[in-house]
Design a protein that fits this description.
- The chain is α/β, with parallel strands linked by helices.
- It contains 11 helices and 11 strands.
- The strands form 3 sheets. The chain has a 6-stranded parallel beta sheet with strand order 6-7-8-9-10-11. A 3-stranded parallel beta sheet has the order 3-4-5. A two-stranded antiparallel sheet has the order 1-2.
- Helix 2 (63-78) crosses helix 3 and helix 5 (135-148) packs parallel to helix 6.
- The chain is globular, with a radius of gyration of 18 Å.
- The two termini are 33 Å apart.
- The chain binds zinc ion.
- Zinc ion is lined by residues 43, 45, 88, 276.
C-alpha cells in the first residue's frame, strides 16, 4: 500500500463542508501547517491512569519507564507511514504533554494533546470545581490552555476532549461540558471530540451545539461503533457531524461492516478511524499489556481491499478527513 503524502487541498475544497484551505494544528512539539499532517491516527493513548481525579498524579509513574515501554510501538507504526497521532488521554486521566513531547522527539511521530474534561464513568475523572463552575468558567480554563499552553509546559492543545455519560437525557454536568466545549470552539476553532457511544446520546450533544449556533461539523462523535442502527450514521453524516470509528486496536469485523456501509452510502468523507490502542497503565506491573497501533494497516486494510476499497479511500480516511476535521483556519 502506497500513500500519497501530500494532501491536495484543491480536492478538499470540493468535498468539505467546512473548507480548510490553509491552517494549522498544535502538536506537542509546536504548531504545524495542516498540509504536513500526513497519515494520521486520530484516537490513541500513550498513558492512561484510571485511579480517579482525586488521586491521579505524575508521581504514580516514571516518565522514562513509560517512554521505554511506548517508544517501540511508535517506531513500529512509522513503517506504515504514520506521521501524526492524536493522544486522547484527557485531563485527570494522566494527560502528560511533556511525555508526549519527549516521545515525539524520540520517535519522529508528531503527537497531539488536548484540553477539556471527562464526565463519563459517573464523575470519577472530574475535579470538584467542574460541578460548581459555570460553562463559561470551564471554557475559560480551556481557552487559557489554547492561548498560553497547558500548565507551565508551553504545549498547546490540538483539540478539545470531553466525555459524557450515556443517558436518555444528558446529566446537567455533561450538558455543561458540551456547552463549555462549544464556547471554547467558538473562541479557538478547536474541534470538539466527545467520548460518547450511541447516537441517542450524541444527538443530544449536537442539539446543544446547534442551539449555540455551531455547525455540527465542529463535533466528533467518539466511539460511534457502539451504534447498532446504521441509519443513525446517515443522520449524523447528513448533519455534518464527524463519525469516529475508533476501537480498531481491539477488533476489526464490526468496522468492516460499518465502513462498507459508509462507502456504499457515500459518506466516507465524514468518517474518522483509529485504534484507541496503547497504553502504559501505572496501576499494572511495568504498565501492563500494550495494544499496538497496527490493526488498521495489518488487518482492516486487507479485509476492506478485498471488498473493493481503494487507495483513494484510505487517503480520505487517514489523511484528508483528519485535516478537514482538525485543521484550524489561520
Ligand atoms: Zn480512548
Amino acid at each position: 500500500m502506497k500513500f500519497c503524502l501530500i494532501v491536495g487541498l484543491s480536492l478538499l475544497v470540493s468535498c468539505s463542508m467546512r473548507v480548510v484551505e490553509t491552517g494549522f494544528l498544535n502538536t506537542a512539539t509546536g504548531k504545524i501547517p495542516i498540509d504536513s499532517m500526513g497519515i494520521t491516527l486520530i484516537h490513541e493513548h500513550m498513558l492512561v491512569d484510571f485511579i480517579g481525579a482525586d488521586s491521579v498524579s505524575p508521581a504514580r509513574y516514571n516518565q522514562e519507564e513509560v517512554i521505554a515501554k511506548v517508544l517501540p510501538y511508535l517506531i513500529e507504526v512509522k513503517k506504515y507511514g504514520v506521521k501524526t497521532i492524536f493522544d486522547c488521554t484527557p485531563s485527570y486521566l494522566a494527560k502528560d504533554p511533556v511525555l508526549l513531547k519527549k516521545l515525539s522527539e524520540q520517535s519522529g511521530i508528531r503527537l497531539v494533546t488536548n484540553t477539556g474534561f471527562y464526565g463519563a464513568v459517573d464523575n470519577k475523572y472530574l475535579p470538584d470545581f467542574a460541578f460548581t463552575e459555570t460553562a463559561e468558567q470551564l471554557s475559560q480554563r480551556w481557552i487559557e490552555e489554547f492561548e498560553n499552553g497547558i500548565g507551565d509546559t508551553g504545549i498547546k492543545p490540538g483539540f478539545i476532549k470531553i466525555s459524557v455519560n450515556e443517558e436518555s437525557t444528558l446529566r446537567g454536568v455533561d450538558a455543561k461540558l458540551v456547552k463549555a466545549a462549544g464556547l471554547t470552539h467558538q473562541k479557538t476553532g478547536l474541534q470538539i471530540v466527545s467520548h460518547t457511544g450511541t447516537w441517542a446520546t450524541a444527538s443530544q450533544e449536537v442539539a446543544i451545539l446547534k442551539e449555540m449556533g455551531l455547525d455540527p461539523s465542529a463535533f466528533v462523535w467518539v466511539h460511534a461503533q457502539a451504534e447498532q442502527d446504521f441509519q443513525n450514521y446517515m443522520i449524523a453524516a447528513k448533519l455534518g457531524a464527524w463519525i469516529s470509528l475508533d476501537g480498531i486496536g481491539w477488533s476489526v469485523d464490526e468496522y468492516v461492516d460499518r465502513l462498507l456501509y459508509a462507502k456504499e452510502k457515500g459518506f466516507l468523507d465524514q468518517i474518522l478511524i483509529s485504534h484507541d490502542a496503547g497504553w502504559y497503565d501505572p496501576s499494572k506491573p511495568n504498565g501492563g499489556d500494550f495494544q499496538p497501533f497496527t490493526n488498521i494497516f495489518e488487518k482492516l486494510m486487507p479485509a476492506l481491499n478485498s471488498k473493493g476499497f481503494e487507495e483513494a479511500d484510505w487517503e480520505m480516511l487517514l489523511e484528508e478527513n483528519p485535516v478537514r476535521a482538525f485543521g484550524i483556519s489561520n
